Amino acid sequence: MWLLLAVAALRLVTMALLPMSDTTEPRYAETARLMAESGDWITPWFEPGVPFWGKPPLAFWAQAASIELFGLSDFVVRLPSWLVMAAIVWLTMHLARALGGDALSRLSGLVLASMALVFIGAGAVMTDPFLAFGTTLSLASLALVSLGNTRPWRWMFFVGLAVGLLAKGPLTLVLVGLPAGLWALCSRAGRRALRTLPWLGGAVLTLAAVVPWYVVAESKTPGFLDYFLIGEHFRRFVTPGWEGDLYGSAHHEIRGTIWLFLLWAGFPWSLIAAALSVRWLARWRARAGRTDALFTAQAPLLLLATLTPIAFFSFAGNILWTYALPSLPFLAILIARELLPTLEHRKFRIACALMAALVPLTVTGAGLYLSVRPERLDSAAPLLTALRREPGGESERLHFVGRIPFSARYYSRGRAQSMSAETLADLVRDPSHRLFLAVRNDDLPSVVDLLGEHYELRFRGARHSLLVPRIQDGDQGVHAFLTKR
Question: What is the signed CA dihedral for 461, 465, 19, 378, rounded to 10 degrees?
Fold first, then answer.
């Protein structure tokens, strides 16, 4: 338990120290910042005047509320993800305790918290933890109801659906409905649990929590429902490299890649799961009799909850490794149950502790290194820091030649601007503008040749470099300032 708490606390360290790297984190952080700044809690905004139709608002509500409560900082925007991931770990431990006792509960929590995607995602600005919380809440509630724990879990099943629908959308119904329905088909306990749920009241609760926002969002920015329901949930799924994405670029992976993503997301414990799968398959074929509850009535639900997201996304090419997150809580319980008997031996306890420490220590060490060498990150944060050291280096005077990265929008608080190549040519003809330029490193030689002696290089990052106006002989004020500094 102390090791589990240490893992949870360790993630807080780099949340405060490490700048956000493009593209996911600063994109969602800027959306949350705009929500808090504008006071518009209905429509998330991609940028002023451009609504963000790609996700429902729950994650942005949480992040914007955190900004309102504590002020704007990287740690504050990341905090809701940490809290939601902690809630997922708690739910997993609560279910494991009901299935197999305190020892299984603690080990399940430790396995889950030290998985790569869970540890990294706990300190990152993402929407996936909120979806995973919703699906975990619904399926864990169903399992607890089957064990006789009806209050308040009969209603928490529907609360989980509402959370998922406001976090990611109708995908929640698939990730909850498929394992629940298949479990009911193959298990009497599953059918009993589903009959126990208050379907009428629960449906009313879910619809009352979800539908008003969808209706108001469509009326406020017409076209949202078509893009979100048809584009994001159908075209994105069936079309690899979907070109209709309004907010970035779609991902094109070989179908079935999600299985590799599961190994990555659950590392290092997923390697044990891969080895144990042979034993699980043999046990299933032999229908080996076991008396504990975990491997009788609830085993199919745990297995189905683990496999459903992976099987579903096996048919999609437009995927990310974060799509494996809803599988991990239930996979953690299955792994912990197999490992628990081995912990009677000291060498296995040490091995388990080392595995639990592997990802947290590696990620934290890398994060600490990058926090002192931020120029190695694909982030505009160190460039903005270098800009502020310059006389007159306000964010409003910073222009990115070409497309402005999301991290620049976030760290400049929306003040940095973009500049086309044609505008840059005009700048050469009238150097009195004295702007600060951020240039992609690939374009730097040609831009430096174009600008000539009017600008000099002051900072070089992983992707962008900062060019500042060169001091002229007549700039006595600026020259005196620099000399004094």
Answer: -60
